[in-house]
Design goal:
single chain; alpha/beta; globular; Rossmann fold; disordered C terminus
């Protein structure tokens, strides 16, 4: 397959979605095909263990740790320094607020919002966001298959809340062009045709908010467009 895309590519692509939806895998594939710089989300937040065990104050500490470290990563990109450089990130900076709204008390959220407002205005906005969706039961199966102890501690109720929070966030998201992909029936690793179909789609521009399913999953359904 030839390199992608046929048109001038977006310079900053962010891939988003709940845990085990496939963000990192897809970002790795895209960065390889686009010969792009790879931006990876923080994985070693020292407060996450206490957060999943619901220890007092751990949610706020974990959220601030993510916020500061994600800010430093995005700020270090300096996109203006290299005009044609492409960056693929496996997270969107704005997603930090998804979890803040979900996990923090009203007082904690008020303080967090002040820090977020100061930092967010200094972070570049992606040209394209790819939002990966999956049903909670699909994500649970993937969590169990991966078998990471800290992830196994995530309750079904919390996992469902995360999925709903992402859906609400991206329903109202208009800052970038957005491609929404339901991954419940997609396997980028096990089925190369799923990846090839998506890469073929990304050789064409995404304008506004668009929804996509591979041909094998949608059985002839057509891609649709909407307002979010």
């Amino acid at each position: 397959m030839s390199g992608l895309p046929d048109y001038e590519p977006p310079r900053l692509i962010a891939i988003e979605g709940p845990i085990r939806v496939g963000k990192t895998t897809l970002a790795d594939f895209l960065a390889d095909r686009l010969h792009a710089e790879r931006l990876r989300d923080i994985e070693n937040n020292p407060f996450l263990g206490d957060f999943y065990q619901e220890k007092p104050g751990a949610a706020f500490a974990a959220q601030l740790y993510f916020l500061v470290h994600r800010f430093h990563q995005y700020q270090a990109l300096d996109l203006a320094s290299t005009a044609r450089r492409v960056v693929v990130s496996d997270y969107l900076f704005d997603k930090d607020k998804v979890f803040a709204n979900l996990n923090l008390s009203d007082l904690e959220l008020a303080l967090y919002d002040e820090y977020f407002a100061l930092l967010a205005e200094q972070v570049p906005i992606p040209d394209l966001v790819i939002y990966l969706q999956a049903k909670p039961e699909t994500l649970r199966r993937r969590i169990e298959k991966k078998n990471v102890p800290i992830e196994n501690a995530i309750s079904d109720d919390y996992l469902e809340s995360v999925v709903k929070a992402y859906e609400h966030f991206f329903f109202h998201y208009h800052s970038s062009d957005l491609l929404v992909i339901d991954t419940s029936e997609i396997d980028f690793v096990g089925r190369s045709e799923d990846l090839d179909e998506l890469l073929a789609r990304l050789k064409q521009p995404v304008k506004g908010t668009q929804y996509y399913l591979p041909l094998g999953s949608r059985r002839g359904a057509t891609e649709t467009e909407g307002n979010g």
